[in-house]
Amino acid sequence: xxxxxxxxxxxxxxxxxxxxxxxxxxxxxxxxxxxxxxxxxxxxxxxxxxxxxxxxxxxxxxxxxxxxxxxxxxxxxxxxxxxxxxxxxxxxxxxxxxxxxxxxxxxxxx
Amino acid sequence: xxxxxxxxxxxxxxxxxxxxxxxxxxxxxxxxxxxxxxxxxxxxxxxxxxxxxxxxxxxxxxxxxxxxxxxxxxxxxxxxxxxxxxxxxxxxxxxxxxxxxxxxxxxxxx
DNA sequence: TCGTATGATTGCAATATTGCGATTAACTTT
DNA sequence: AAAGTTAATCGCAATATTGCAATCATACGA
Lengths: 110, 110
Description:
2 copies of one chain form a homodimer. With 110 residues, chain A is an alpha+beta fold. Chain A has helices spanning 11-23, 26-37, 46-49, 54-66, 85-105; strands at residues 42-43, 70-75, 78-83.
C-alpha cells in the first residue's frame, strides 16, 4: 500500500531508519560531501554545485535539516549550512556496534 | 518526476546512497537487528519475528541481499541469512571519515 | 508419488518520493 | 520605495516504494 507500518517497530528502529533514509539519495550525499569539502559552512553556493534546480536542492536541504543531519542559520538574505556532528557521531557508533557484533559471530555462521 | 537523476552523480555517491537507502526502512533495520541478536545465522524464523506478511519480509530480504548487506544460503528447503561484514565495515569507515572531517571544521563554523 | 512446508514471485492498490516551474517571502541595495 | 537577490513553498506530473493475497517453485517426509 505504500504505507510504512512504523507503529509496529520500536522508536529506535524508526529513528535510525529515518536518518538513513534521509541519507539514501545521491543528491543528499553530494550535499553532505560538498559541505565537508568546504572548510567552513556554506552559504548559498550549493545550487550552482549540484545538477538540480533551486527548488529541488531546497527540498533536499529541508529533509536533511528535518532529521538533524545539517544545521542552517540565516545570514542576511542568504542561509548558511553546515553538518551536525551529533548525527554522524550517532551513525558511526551505530555501525561500530553492529560491526563488532558481526565480527564475533562470523565463526559459527554460514 | 519521481525519477532520481543518478546519472549526474558520481558512482561512489550512488553506491553509498543505495546502501543507505536499503537501510532506511524500519522493517529492514529490524531484520538486521534480529540477525545480530541471534548468535548464528537465521533460517526462516524471520517472518514470525516481524509484524509483516511473508511476502513482505521476503521482499525486504531481497533488497538487503541486492545491495550486499546480508547473505543468504539455501539450506535444504529453508534459507539461511546472515549479515555481510564487509558492508558494515564500509559504512563504519564512511561515517568515521566524515566525523573526523566535521570535527576539524567545527571551530570556524556557524 | 503425494501431500506438506518453505520461501520466492506476481500483480495489484495505496501511498511516498523526486524534480521542477512558478510563485512567494524576506532581506539588501540603490 | 523600487529593483534585485536569495531561498522557501506550492502544485503538479512522473515514478518508486510498501504491503499483501495469491500463486508458483522447490525440497522434504511419509
